[in-house]
Every structure is written in structure tokens, then in C-alpha cells.
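Worked Example 4.2. Read the sequence first, then its C-alpha cells.
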Amino acid sequence: MTNPRFRPRASCEPSTNFGTARLVTWKSPAGMTESALDQLGTAKLQHAHAQQVRAALAADGATISSYANENGIDITRLGRILRGDVIMRIEDVVNAERNLKLRERRAVAGAAPSQR
């Protein structure tokens, strides 16, 4: 596997809480370049997405492994995405939106679906 441009989990403390904990401490944006600000924003979005995926799997009584196997997703890559070791792709988001019905779950929970 190639090295990613950045590791999203490196933007929060403790990095082991990426994608799992509700509250993490994010790096301060003060003095960041525009590129670094984009990476911080990307990390925050991926963190929220990983939390949604984990919550949906827990609600369904499914494991990351079973979800990956049932949907033809590489388990190693999925684990790295959820941990923030690699950057997720738009295809990863769309796959989870479709297979885990994330939009519907957010609507039921009262949160407006993200259109970004």
C-alpha cells in the first residue's frame, strides 16, 4: 500500500480515539496553511463518517468484518479508513450511505442529511 498524503487520525488527540470517541481534541487551526486546514476539515468529516458507520453496525448487530464480507469491501482498507490511517474516498462514503442506509438513519435521528 502506498503512503497516504496524510493520516487523518494525526489531526486529533488521542489519535487512537479517531472514529470512535464522540469528543476528541483537534489540532488548533491557528497558523495552519490552507492545505493543512483542508486536511483538518477532511479528518473531521472522516471521523464523523467513521462514527456513523460504527454506530450503524452496532445497531444492526454486525461487525466490521461481516459488513465488509457481505458488501465486497476489502476489510483491511475498511479498518484503516475507520481508524483514520488512510483517507476515505467518495466511493467509500457512497457505499456506506447505500449499504448501511446512513441517510435514512440520520433522518430518523432528526439530523439533516449532509449534502456536502
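Now turn to a second chain, presented in exactly the same format:
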Amino acid sequence: MSHASQKFHVRLGLGRLEGLMTKQQARSWGDRNIPSDLKSAGFSTCVFESCPEIHGALFLRISYGKSCPSR
């Protein structure tokens, strides 16, 4: 099974969403639920895959950020 089709627990802020999701499902959820103030300020959904050795578990994290322009 590839990582693209694997389902993981999903964390958002200090909480955790119910059920398991693929990375694409987590990105879609984040896009549908981005706060309007962040969206109007140019933020977009970012999905991060954790590393068990560093973070202690394997999960996806939804966050919102801006891309830095290339120079």
C-alpha cells in the first residue's frame, strides 16, 4: 500500500478529527473548512505527514500557511 492511499489519524490544532483520512481527503477537508479570515488573507491548506521517530506517532496534520515567493 502506498502512502498516497494509506489512511491516518488527522490532527488539527490541539484536537484530532474523527476517523481516518488519506492525505488528499485531509487536504479537501482543510480546503472546505479554512477560516474565512485566513482565506481572504491569502492562506492555503497545508497537510503535513508526521515522522514517528520525531513526533512519536504517524499522523497527518492540517494547518494553514502562505507560500513564500521565489526570488
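Notes for the reader: The chain has a mean pLDDT of 90. The beta strands are 8-12, 15-21, 44-49, 60-65.
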